[in-house]
Specification:
heterodimer; A: 110 residues; mainly beta; five-stranded antiparallel β-sheet; globular; B: 115 residues; seven-stranded mixed β-sheet; four-stranded antiparallel β-sheet
Chain lengths: 110, 115
Amino acid sequence: GQNIDQPTEMTATEGAIVQINCTYQTSGFNGLFWYQQHAGEAPTFLSYNVLDGLEEKGRFSSFLSRSKGYSYLLLKELQMKDSASYLCAVPGAGSYQLTFGKGTKLSVIP
Amino acid sequence: KAGVTQTPRYLIKTRGQQVTLSCSPISGHRSVSWYQQTPGQGLQFLFEYFSETQRNKGNFPGRFSGRQFSNSRSEMNVSTLELGDSALYLCASSLDGTGPQETQYFGPGTRLLVL
């Protein structure tokens, strides 16, 4: 089976940096996804990591450690529009379903 | 390119009724997955279709079913609705389902309220 754990809520200040952690347990590893979901909207793809290390994409970076079953999403220069839920997800071994964590609700305050 | 579209966007039903939701994937995408999202359980996988065949199914009762048409459009059906079926139903498409690492693109969802 698969299990994903993320903090439920986080608060950070506009302009700051925030790190959202995700730990996972999976029987077979096929990479890890991060999605952003604004309230009432569809999840949108942010990143996909399959190899260890940090991948940077503008203000957002994602890190993966396969040996530790750990990933984080790093958001720099926070803006008010970054207030959203951030979902960590892993695909199943040999299947096409995504198992999602329950998401981390990030609130960016002035 | 147009994104994933879902209809209807909002739906109110009563217990015992049935409902059919529709999803049109991104043009050229052949894999369609369905998810249920609730505040308590988060996003949970329902099933996935590719080339009109169901390849994977999540842990939901048989009241939840789906199908895919030759043009890759998909429908899901929930029969004998229960209050607990109230949720946001999300459809996601990916290109050709060559592997679980393929990015899935989500539609806006159908919000179902069961009274």
